[in-house]
Design brief:
This protein is an alpha+beta fold. The chain has one domain: B-lactam Antibiotic, Isopenicillin N Synthase, Chain (Jelly Rolls). The chain is 30% helix and 14% strand. The protein contains 13 helices and twelve strands. The strands form two sheets. It has an eight-stranded mixed β-sheet. A four-stranded antiparallel β-sheet has the order 6-11-8-9, with no helix packed on it. Helix 4 runs antiparallel to helix 5 and helix 5 packs parallel to helix 9. The protein is globular and about 55 Å long. The two termini are 31 Å apart. The structure holds 2-oxoglutaric acid (AKG) and fe (ii) ion (FE2). Fe (ii) ion (FE2) binds next to loops.
Length: 409
């Protein structure tokens, strides 16, 4: 048994500046996995990852430096770098800083843009982006709706409060989104219309995207090996420089009146491959397999919540799990606070066909057990995501919004 991560006490895991997450609500049984140990290919940690991805499809990933000398990346160069990259606002988001920081974290520059994941850096970027997100939602609605790109057939940009639906009856949601495309920020596609206040933060968004994507590729590489797929198969479907639906999302939900509360974001499975989620207030709930009780995911400081999406289910013939989740008003003393979350959605490249991959006996066996299973249609990643995302918008086709959860426990 490892005890390093477990020796942090509760105070280290809490957001002390926020009202505490209540003790008396059901919480979901997410395993806590250490990035530092995964990146050293620790076999025990890899089996925890495998178990979490097969059984629940959700886990916590500890992104902090583990406090032992051998684990801590404290070379003076890296420490000094972090300082030198902060601008006068204390934010690490200058354009020149990006290049310098990339140079430091990149050990083996395999593909254009790619970096090695650095957990503390990702945590810092997430914290900085929480501030940026607040300023986006503070803009007047008339300004924000200029960036609702639904009518152009895009799921990037703004989605206003109540502009999504949470069920087949068309009940309106209770949150706003702002979605930023990876390809826009990396210069792989034309820039989309966006509020001017985001301009100075494109460097920060780029860093967050690179770090999140590198994290996802590390996880995909480890899962690839567990699945006995040909080397690099899963990561190669998720190249940072391929055109894809990868996006950063801020989710923003003001507190709901005490006598009129409803689900803010309706139950769903994520559409893509791997989701990296930063939460501070509670409200996210999962429905664990074989239960009918929604359980809260308690936010933990220094950790991301990672969950798998439907693409991973389809590519592995259902070996890996994408679990249903939803967002409700924050619980207990947190109920009167505005909730915001920050998400990175990694998705296979647009042209990847979402069907079981060849080259793994494990996947072949699973496919044989369930021959008509998940390959019932030939659909690309782009079509799948567009259909599901727009199906959940008002006026969309709800019957097309569903995912692989249908017919499954
Ligand atoms: O806000 C959250 O905690 C989760 C958001 C979510 O599930 C999503 O945007 O798909
Ligand atoms: Fe989700």
């Amino acid at each position: 048994m490892h005890d390093k991560a477990d020796r942090y006490d509760e105070a280290d895991l809490s957001f002390l500046e926020l009202p505490t997450f209540p003790e008396d609500v059901p919480t979901a049984p997410l395993l806590r996995i250490s990035l530092s140990r995964l990146s050293k290919s620790d076999p025990e940690e890899i089996s925890k990852l495998w178990k979490a991805c097969c059984e629940l499809g959700f886990f916590y990933l500890d992104l902090r430096n583990v406090s032992t000398t051998e684990d801590r990346p404290t070379s003076p160069a890296v420490d000094g770098l972090n300082e030198s990259l902060k601008n006068e606002n204390g934010r690490a988001d200058s354009a020149t800083g990006d290049d310098e920081r990339e140079a430091q974290v990149k050990i083996e520059p395999t593909r254009e843009f790619e970096v090695n994941v650095h957990g503390e850096r990702l945590l810092q970027d997430a914290e900085d982006l929480f501030r940026v997100g607040r300023s986006v939602f503070d803009l007047p609605v008339e300004e924000k709706i200029k960036y609702d790109l639904k009518d152009q057939g895009s799921y990037f940009g703004y989605k206003g409060y109540g502009q999504g639906v949470i069920d087949a009856a068309g009940t309106k949601d209770r949150n706003e989104f702002y979605n930023v495309s990876k390809d826009d920020i990396l210069g792989l596609s034309e820039p989309l219309p966006a509020p001017e206040l985001l301009d100075p933060h494109r460097g920060l968004l780029k860093s967050f995207i690179q770090q999140s994507h590198a994290l996802v590729c590390l996880l995909l590489g480890l899962l690839n090996d567990q699945l006995n797929l040909p080397h690099d198969k899963l990561p190669s479907l998720h190249r940072l420089d391929s055109i894809s639906g990868d996006q950063v999302r801020w989710v923003h939900a003001p507190p709901q009146p005490m006598d009129d509360r409803r689900t803010a974001l309706g139950q769903h499975t994520d559409f893509g491959s791997v989701t990296v989620l930063f939460n501070r207030l509670g409200g996210l709930q999962v429905l664990p397999p074989n239960t009918d009780e929604w359980c809260y995911v308690k936010p933990l400081r220094g950790h991301a919540v990672i969950n798998l999406g439907d693409a991973m289910v389809k590519l592995t013939a259902g070996i890996l799990r994408s679990n249903i989740h939803r967002v409700v008003n924050p619980p207990g003393q947190q109920a009167n606070h505005t909730r915001m979350s920050l998400v990175y959605f990694a998705r296979p490249a647009d042209d990847v066909v979402l069907k079981a991959l060849d080259g793994s006996t494990l996947i072949d066996q699973k496919r044989q057990q369930n021959p008509d299973g998940l390959d019932d249609e030939e659909i690309t990643s782009k079509e799948w995501i567009l259909r599901r995302a727009l199906g959940r918008r008002q006026g969309g086709d709800w019957t097309k919004a569903g995912g692989t959860e249908r017919g499954r426990v």
